[in-house]
Amino acid sequence: MISERYPFRLGGYSCIVFIDGREVRPVSSLTSSIGPEVIAQELRAHGFSPTEVVSDYNILFIDTSRRLVLVDTGWGCCTQKMQGRLLRNLHDAGLASEDIDLVILTHGDRDHLGGLVDLDGNASYPNATYVMSQEAWQWYNDPQNLARLPTEFREFYRRTLPVIGEHLQTIVGEEEILPGLSLLPAPGHRPGHSVLRLTLNGKHLLHLADTVGHPIFMLHPDWRWPYDSLPEQAMQTRRQLLGWAAENQALMFGAHLPFPGLGTVIAQSDGWLWEPGEK
Questions:
Q1: In what order do the strands lie in the sheet with 13-26?
Q2: How far is 204 from 277, CA to CA, in rounded Å?
């Protein structure tokens, strides 16, 4: 990989996409909606490997000139499976973790919350205010929900969430966090899963979070992604957001799309065609 950060601008805001990690999985992990031969054919036809799925872990940073905003925090050091590179990449870009004063959390998966604390259990972003949907916060703080999770997951949430609790703002429904920047419910992937919409000077950026796990789900929005908790609801959300993005010519960002995870869509057949890059 040539670079681990990708700078761009939207209106008066300076943005950077940082990569936190990369995972390669067998193509069988992509979907069970159709047979492997059809999956391989579709992937090959649109320029993707027919045998493996590359999942990047992309993090969006926004400098509004008044606030330094991080959307999700990557893996951090929460698991041996993946050691997050976000803090190192922030440092290489001349940013200290103490500089970040707003952290927006799209949902509760560990690859989005893992970087909240360091190895000693201290806040990685000690000067930040945190924003998360109330539904997500309540779900991951409910002992009955945690009891159904594997031990490693339970310990992670019990160790991590209290660190940010005193500095957390929870949001119900759609709410503007900063001028032009709103958090929106996007149900289906995880409890309280949310996306971000940034609108400045008539231009839109839609942060999809985990609404779309691979560009092929844009062409086939009704294919099931096995990582969605409520697949039917996730499909409906996918269609709504992709339709809105195409209609409004929005630049989109995906947490697991090929780095830097930026692009646009155009309607095609019963879905949308992903066009990587900025406009």
A1: 5-10, 13-26, 52-63, 68-71, 102-104, 129-133, 168-171
A2: 14
- Of 38, 11, 84, 19, which is closest to residue 260 (Cα–Cα)? 19
Q: Alpha helix (H) ranges present in 107-260? A: 110-113, 134-140, 143-147, 151-165, 216-219, 231-247
Burial class (CB in 10 A: 0-12, 13-18, 19+), 85: buried
> Could you give all domains of the chain from N- to C-terminal order, each with its CATH number?
5-276 (3.60.15.10)
26 has which bridge partners?
52
Residue identified by tokens 């062409």 is 219
Give the whole-angstrom CA distance, residue 33 versus residue 42: 13
Per the CB < 8 A criterion, the answer to whether 72 and 116 are in contact is: no
Among all chains, which residue has been given the structure tokens 């231009």? 203
SS3 70: strand
Q: CA 116 to CA 128: how far, in whole Å?
A: 10
Whole-model pTM over 0.70: yes
With H, G, I as helix, E, B as strand and everything else as coil, classify residue 39.
Answer: helix
Query: Can you give the pLDDT of all 279 residues of the chain as single tens digits?
Result: 448 999 999 999 999 999 999 999 999 999 988 888 899 999 999 999 999 999 999 999 999 999 999 999 999 998 888 889 999 999 999 999 999 999 999 999 999 999 999 999 999 999 999 999 999 999 999 999 999 999 999 999 999 999 999 999 999 999 999 999 999 999 999 999 999 999 999 999 999 999 999 999 999 999 999 999 999 999 999 999 999 999 999 999 999 999 999 999 999 989 999 999 865
